[in-house]
Design brief:
This is Lipoprotein. Keywords: Coiled coil, Signal. This protein has 281 residues and is an alpha+beta fold. The chain folds into two domains: 112 residues, no CATH class; 111 residues, TATA-Binding Protein, CATH 3.30.310. A five-stranded antiparallel β-sheet has the order 1-5-4-3-2.
């Protein structure tokens, strides 16, 4: 065998003996490295992963390392303190954190003394039950808050509907004041002239039509704007009835609707008073 061939063969055999390129170190290797760096908690967490390994050699090695390294006992207990468990729950989220720590506790049971395990288990049970109670209380508070919000919303809606009904009653009553009965031609002419003045003064829109029997404004062109129409309807003899009809451009929502109704009520009620105070027989 040539020298070059021998060197190549030794290199290949050496490569087979060590870790293959691209393979991550095993938990045992990671633990041994952490032990060499005196990073006991990290070392324990790596060993913990293989305490129940189906590979007997790996499992035996992990348990032996734990038994031969006293510092790992303290490190293991440190990972099950209330503070450490709380950090895990907060980091992982309650459900995930409990599942992880419950599994870890089962691994710890394989190496811990009865006394050590009781302390760790007690910390886990106390903290997990406390978190569960807190979550349940928070869920109850959330549900109560949602129920209260829905009740307030329902109450507000009921109040708005009642207010709308009351405004509708007032609007219907106000329409009686938007009608004026005049007894003769002269009074009716004057009443209708006063009606035109009232509309021009109280409406938001300009008058587009006015004759002996009809007065009409342009249609309201913006939310809340008031327009009006008045008609003089002949009655018996030379009598007549002057009727005012107001219109409001309603915006979207309950409040704009209520605002329009209030404006219409005011305008209807003011009309009758306006005519009566200025009409002289």
């Amino acid at each position: 065998m040539s020298r070059m061939l021998a060197v190549a063969l030794i290199s290949v055999l050496a490569g087979c003996a060590g870790p293959q390129f691209g393979q991550s170190p095993s938990p045992i290797a990671k633990a041994e490295r952490a032990i060499s760096e005196r990073n006991w908690v990290v070392a324990y967490r790596h060993l913990e992963d293989v305490f129940a390994s189906p590979n007997e050699a790996v499992r035996t090695k992990a348990l032996q390392l734990y038994a031969d390294t006293p510092q790992l006992r303290s490190a293991a207990a440190q990972t099950f303190t209330a503070e450490a468990l709380k950090t895990s729950f907060e980091k992982q989220g309650y459900a995930t954190g409990v599942a992880i720590e419950k599994y870890r506790l089962s691994m710890y049971r394989l190496v811990a003394t009865d006394a050590e395990y009781r302390v760790a288990s007690s910390n886990f049970e106390n903290l997990s039950s406390g978190y569960q109670a807190g979550l349940l209380a928070e869920e109850e508070r959330r549900k109560a808050a949602e129920a209260l919000a829905k009740q307030k919303e329902a109450d507000a809606l009921a109040k708005q509907l009642e207010e709308l009904k009351e405004l509708d009653r007032q609007l219907e009553a106000s329409r009686r004041n938007a009608v004026f009965h005049c007894k003769d031609r002269l009074q009716c002419e004057k009443a209708f002239a006063l009606t035109q003045i009232f509309i021009a003064t109280n409406s938001d829109m300009r008058i587009q039509l006015a004759n002996d029997t009809l007065i009409e404004t342009y249609n309201p062109n913006k939310d809340g704007a008031m327009g009006a129409t008045a008609m003089k309807v002949p009655g018996a003899g030379t009598s007549a009835v002057v009727m005012l009809d107001v219109v409001c451009k309603q915006g979207r929502g309950v409040e704009p609707v209520k605002a329009c109704k209030r404006s219409a009520i005011v305008m209807n009620n003011d009309f009758g008073e306006f005519i009566k105070k200025r009409l002289v027989d």
